[in-house]
Model the fold of this input.
Amino acid sequence: MAAPLRWLGRANPERRAAFVEQLRPLLDGAQHDRHQLVYWDEAHIHQDVDLGHGWGERGKRFFVASSSPGLSAKVSLHGLYFYNEGRVRLWPYARANGEHTVDVLRRLRAEIPDGKLIVVWDGAPYHRAKAV
Done:
């Protein structure tokens, strides 16, 4: 597909409609079992969720001391929506990178070992890594 997924979130209705129109053959093919269609995206969950409480003046910023780990302490969840089957897989990794993307692609092919497989994802740098 020529149009990147990021256009769906943009405010241009014509571009959005054109992109959705490009998706129709993919959806139609999946509905008629000509291929398997998988949407894939990542979420990066930071482990800095210390709970706390305190008193503060209304309308003023309230600072709380935190022993939370830094931003590098996170888990990256690769979320895959199997359109044909209406099911979701969440696979956690320490981070999102080309190596883990290749691993997810291998796991995905193991889940769907036969036939044509179409993956719809965004343009994240690790999706475009040389290894991928």
The chain has a mean pLDDT of 84. Residues 14 and 20 are 10 Å apart (CA to CA).
